[in-house]
């Protein structure tokens, strides 16, 4: 009997094959240029199967990097009390996630990105399209200044994550959350709403 030729049926192996192809596409082409149809074609499945497993392209991207939280549900909380409290709320949310069991996955991802260019490209693309783009939209930042403001905020968060969770530099590593909010929040707030000009 001839072996049936056609698209692959659903299975755990199929799901992992989709993720493997997705990682390559997202790293090589970026999030915006990658299509679910192209991933499905290379993985040998119907696009509907990708939607069955992952729902949206955003969720597929998140799972391809094993990101343990969904930015779409967390970022709106940053501006819940108004733009003027965004810096403190961002630090509080960020440290809360990293201090939870989810933080171990984030630390592993950063370690991998430090030694693997492929993972670095994926992480950079995720930060740009899934986090910074949403932050800019939620905070309604000036479109001219928004990219610089968002990247400055990202640099502050990346430095905090590195020192607290990777290097484990004391006393930052064991500082209570609200102490970090009080110490770092104003810096992040300045990046969000303060003047960026040399004259100021």
Fraction of residues in helix? 55-70%
The count of DSSP E runs of length 2 or more, i.e. the number of strands, is 0
Order of helices and strands: HHHHHHHHHH
**How many domains is the backbone divided into?**
2
Give the DSSP E fraction (strand runs of 2 or more residues). Answer: under 5%
CATH top-level class of the largest domain? Mainly Alpha
CATH architecture grouping of the largest domain: Orthogonal Bundle
Ranges with pLDDT <50 over ≥5 residues? 1-8
Q: CATH superfamily membership of the largest domain, which one?
A: Tetracycline Repressor, domain 2
Cα radius of gyration in angstroms: 19 Å
Mean pLDDT: 87
* Main sheet: strands, sense, barrel: none
CATH topology group of the largest domain: Tetracycline Repressor, domain 2
How many DSSP H or I helices? 10
Describe the global form: globular
User: What is the terminal separation in angstroms?
Assistant: 79 Å
Please identify the structural class as seen in this structure: mainly alpha
Walkthrough of the structure:
The structure is a single chain. This protein has 200 residues and is an all-alpha fold. It is 67% helix and 0% strand. It has 2 domains: 12-64, Arc Repressor Mutant, subunit A (Orthogonal Bundle); 71-193, Tetracycline Repressor, domain 2, CATH 1.10.357. Helix 1 crosses helix 4 (57-64). Mean pLDDT is 87; it is low at 1-8.
């Amino acid at each position: 009997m001839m072996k049936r030729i056609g698209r692959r049926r659903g299975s755990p192996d199929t799901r992992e094959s989709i993720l493997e192809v997705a990682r390559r596409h997202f790293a090589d082409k970026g999030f915006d240029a990658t299509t679910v149809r192209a991933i499905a074609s290379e993985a040998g499945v119907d696009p509907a199967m990708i939607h069955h497993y992952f729902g949206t392209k955003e969720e597929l991207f998140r799972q391809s990097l094993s990101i343990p939280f969904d930015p779409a549900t967390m970022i709106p909380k940053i501006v819940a009390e108004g733009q003027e409290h965004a810096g403190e709320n961002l630090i509080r949310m960020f440290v809360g996630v990293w201090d939870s069991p989810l933080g171990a996955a984030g630390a592993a991802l950063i370690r991998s990105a430090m030694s693997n260019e492929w993972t670095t490209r994926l992480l950079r693309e995720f930060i740009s399209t899934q986090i910074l783009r949403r932050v800019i939209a939620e905070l309604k930042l000036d479109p001219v200044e928004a990219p610089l403001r968002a990247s400055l905020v990202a640099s502050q968060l990346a430095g905090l994550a590195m020192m607290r969770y990777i290097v484990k530099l004391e006393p930052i590593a064991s500082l209570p959350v609200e102490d970090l909010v009080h110490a770092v929040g104003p810096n992040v707030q300045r990046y969000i709403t303060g003047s960026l000009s040399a004259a100021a």
